[in-house]
Automatic annotation (TrEMBL):
<feature type="active site">
    <location>
        <position position="132"/>
    </location>
</feature>
<keyword id="KW-0408">Iron</keyword>
<dbReference type="GO" id="GO:0046872">
    <property type="term" value="F:metal ion binding"/>
</dbReference>
<protein>
    <recommendedName>
        <fullName>Peptide deformylase</fullName>
        <ecNumber>3.5.1.88</ecNumber>
    </recommendedName>
</protein>
<comment type="similarity">
    <text>Belongs to the polypeptide deformylase family.</text>
</comment>
<dbReference type="InterPro" id="IPR036821">
    <property type="entry name" value="Peptide_deformylase_sf"/>
</dbReference>
<feature type="binding site">
    <location>
        <position position="89"/>
    </location>
    <ligand>
        <name>Fe cation</name>
    </ligand>
</feature>
<dbReference type="GO" id="GO:0006412">
    <property type="term" value="P:translation"/>
</dbReference>
<dbReference type="InterPro" id="IPR023635">
    <property type="entry name" value="Peptide_deformylase"/>
</dbReference>
<keyword id="KW-0648">Protein biosynthesis</keyword>
<dbReference type="Pfam" id="PF01327">
    <property type="entry name" value="Pep_deformylase"/>
</dbReference>
<feature type="binding site">
    <location>
        <position position="135"/>
    </location>
    <ligand>
        <name>Fe cation</name>
    </ligand>
</feature>
<dbReference type="GO" id="GO:0042586">
    <property type="term" value="F:peptide deformylase activity"/>
</dbReference>
<keyword id="KW-0378">Hydrolase</keyword>
<keyword id="KW-0479">Metal-binding</keyword>
<comment type="function">
    <text>Removes the formyl group from the N-terminal Met of newly synthesized proteins. Requires at least a dipeptide for an efficient rate of reaction. N-terminal L-methionine is a prerequisite for activity but the enzyme has broad specificity at other positions.</text>
</comment>
<feature type="binding site">
    <location>
        <position position="131"/>
    </location>
    <ligand>
        <name>Fe cation</name>
    </ligand>
</feature>
Length: 163
């Protein structure tokens, strides 16, 4: 396992819609391990494959006592209230913005062996599921912000030392 370097907003891989995995082998298991390892440090909850430069539909997570990786995830259900939740992203370091998210989400996908998995959760876990699957469609959360909030986020990004 290896913690991988995080790609930052502006990197082209973060704008790509990721390819689905069709074969599950040792490379898939290694990617799962790397995603989980990269999600482990304090202050992190999850990381999507494009954030480590891999344009495949996968993310790893370590949140609320649950840890794992999901390949080819699909959000199959959202519900509850749509609320603004303070959200940050490893690819947009140091910046947090209120982001509209559903308070409940359910994702189906496959584990690193190609076996079906289902994840569901509320509050921060639901936020994570929505956030990571957005990454796999080539969307960074600041791109989903409404009007003035998005303009302010982009202004702060352009002024960041890392941009």
């Amino acid at each position: 396992m290896a913690e991988r370097e995080i790609r930052l907003f502006g990197d082209p891989v973060l704008r790509e819609a990721c390819a689905s995995l069709t074969a599950f082998d040792a490379a898939t298991a290694q990617l799962a391990a790397d995603l989980i390892e990269t999600a482990l440090p304090e202050g992190r909850a999850a990381v999507a494959a494009p954030q480590i430069g891999v344009a495949l539909r996968a993310f790893g997570y370590d949140l609320d006592g649950r840890r794992g990786a999901v390949f080819n995830p699909v959000v199959v259900e959202t519900g509850g209230e749509r609320v603004d939740i303070d959200e940050g992203c490893l690819s947009v370091p140091g910046l947090w913005f209120p982001t509209p998210r559903w308070s409940y989400a359910r994702v189906t996908g496959l584990d690193e062996f190609g076996e079906p998995v289902e994840l569901e959760g509320e509050a921060v876990f639901a936020q994570m599921l929505q956030h990571e699957t957005d990454h796999l469609d080539g969307t960074v959360y600041v791109q989903t912000l409404p009007g003035q909030r998005r303009r302010e986020a982009m202004r702060q990004i352009r002024q960041s030392s890392w941009f």
